[in-house]
Amino acid sequence: MIRIDKKILLQFFNELIIKQDYFECHEIMEDAWKDKGDFTKEDAEVFFVLIVTGEYHYRRDNVIGAATSYKRALKLYGKHEYDVTAFGFTEQLISLLQERYQHLADTPFKPMNFPVLNWVYESLYDMHQDEYESYSAFTLDILERFEKNEEIVHRHRLRDREDVIEARLEALNRKLEQRKR
């Protein structure tokens, strides 16, 4: 049985649909996956991490990276046939992903209109209703949204990586110390 906190899913969908920050989607779903405790690389969360990684690469014109991520996601799904509705998506997600994967090389990136269950749009509207005159205006906007903000599009290159670099340097130093012994 798949269990994921609805609050986490809403954070994920807010980044996926409203902000189109696929890097942050990856972080949210990876954290949810690792918080389970008994996680494996076969879990449904990994499938969703791969999808948003594919979207991230595709938007940046890295078709090879996108294809690799989509292929791995679809292979994982083929092996496990996850209940995507437990994560707020409709079953149509799989056919849309297959089609997207097949046409990566000959179709310029456009954000996917992710097929989600009604509660997802309704919850997102509740979060953002003060920004829209109506639910219809909200849904029209999100169906046409195309985020091009460079800080979001190129998140992994522009983020502060000082802590990652420091951790890698410490690990290298430990390894060198072990070799000396």
UniProtKB/TrEMBL annotation:
Cross-referenced SUPFAM superfamilies: TTHA0068-like (SSF140663)
Domain of life of the source: Bacteria
Organism of provenance: Jeotgalicoccus halotolerans
Full protein name: DUF309 domain-containing protein
Pfam families, alphabetized: DUF309
InterPro entries reported for this sequence: DUF309 (IPR005500), TTHA0068_sf (IPR023203)
Gene3D superfamilies: TTHA0068-like
